[in-house]
Amino acid sequence: xxxxxxxxxxSFGDKHLMSQVxxxxxxxxxxxxxxxxxxxxxxxxxxxxxxDLDFTGDxxxxxGVTVASTAQEHxxxxxxxxxxxxxxxxxxxxxxxxIIETYPVSMGDDMKLINEYTDALQRFDDKGFYQVEEKIxxxxxxxxxDGMAHRTxxxxxxxxxxxxxxxxxxxxxxxxxxxxxxxxxxxxxxKQQFIEWMKTAREAMLVITHDRDVLxxxxxxxxxxxxxxVSYKGNYDAYLKQNATSTSAGMNEFEQIEKxxxxxxxxxxxxxxxxxxxxxxxxxxKFKRLENESRAELAELSSKEKPTFWIDKDSASQLDYKxxxxxxxxxxxxxxxxxxxxxxxxxxxxxxxxxxxLAYGDAVLFEGVNIDLRExxxxxxxxxxxxxxTSLLRALLHQENAPDVLDGALTLDAQARIGIxxxxxxxxxLPYALEEAIERLYxxxxxxxxxxxxxxxxxxxLFTAADRDVPLERxxxxxxARFQLISMLANDPQxxxxxxxxxxxxxxxxxxxxxxxxxxxxxxxxxxxxxxFRQELGGDMLDIDAHNVHYSPARSE
Length: 557
Description:
The protein is an alpha/beta fold. It is built from 18 helices and 19 strands. The longest helix has 42 residues, at 236-277.
């Protein structure tokens, strides 16, 4: 064991967030941390990295252990280059570099300094630091940050900074790596490279993520729920099985508690009546004692909050009738996506591309794009970041900064209602409070809206009354993602355009999205690097890579 975590209390004002989060990290172990949006995953990350000290409990790392973590903020870096930033995260690199660069000028005949200099040269070589800058530049290129080694960190986008953080972790040579949502801005090539590194790295790793492709490769999953933590040995598939078993047992226990509460309430009434009818002082005292004991037990059981019960749909489908009925009664609230399933819709063509070539000025993006997307069908756009997927969507939707159509015909049914899920919320809505932002997005599209409907939408997407007056820009990533779902479905769309829709959603919400799309009878045009989501949604695939376009009919992965 190289780390022991025991958080007995963490609160924000009156909100009690954690009460018993307890787990350890073994040498070389890969741990995935999951939990519903808002349970405290980011807070846990802050505690483990030492940036949040306002908690009761202990986080103990074994003596001599080095810890590397992805940074959430990048303030005060000034003119620090990407290469310098990554190198600064390497244990010993700065110290050894300083000795090698400065000692030749100052050490003279001082044998002590000469020996330190000689040892530094040897240590620098042993650590592979002579080749490290070349390796970093190669890594940057693999993560599509080619040529950015000498650019300043302040000049990078938020997504690019997150990729740099991952490269810093990969080269940190630490004993423990703490990583928060590593794959959100990665394309499928970079993501696979990260997963391969994670599988073979000697470091112990704690990864906060809902990316099921990453969770499939971990050794253990720690779930934050109901203020505490539950540890499941094995990967994502093992977690689903164990969770189904433990949740079934938990529901049975909670049902027994509910029955006991009903029984105790009746006992209290019975003892009260018997006490009032009795004339013998000893008998009165006996029933009074029994009444007080029942009241005390009733108060204790009534104070217990209902646990969080969630089972994945495949495991839920295998429950016996009694367990399934119990799950329907006790399962935790999830988002409710109101997607209409109108089987009477015609299967007419919504998107058509005939041998299309796109370009920005003289720079040709790709040629020979052919699409025939009808209602009831799905098409995945595949390609590395920057390959032209977004440009193709811009051209289709006639958006600003769209490329020119050099050849062929690209058409979208002018009468089709379109719902778009984007990574970023339209900036004009960010300053508005949630309730007003929902109202404005409906009014901007000339759609009917009322306070009752807004409150209903907020309930469907797990927003609370306390969220109504919170500006969108202050919502969490998961809350912003749920707002984007509301926006996408506002006009009962016939065509959905999805750009990485599973980013920031928790596991139950991802599953609800997948099930809703399974019922959807319109067309779906999507970009996703989530292997589970792609397999669930299926459809044809248009692969755009390095100016080449390859079309594949419905895959069977």
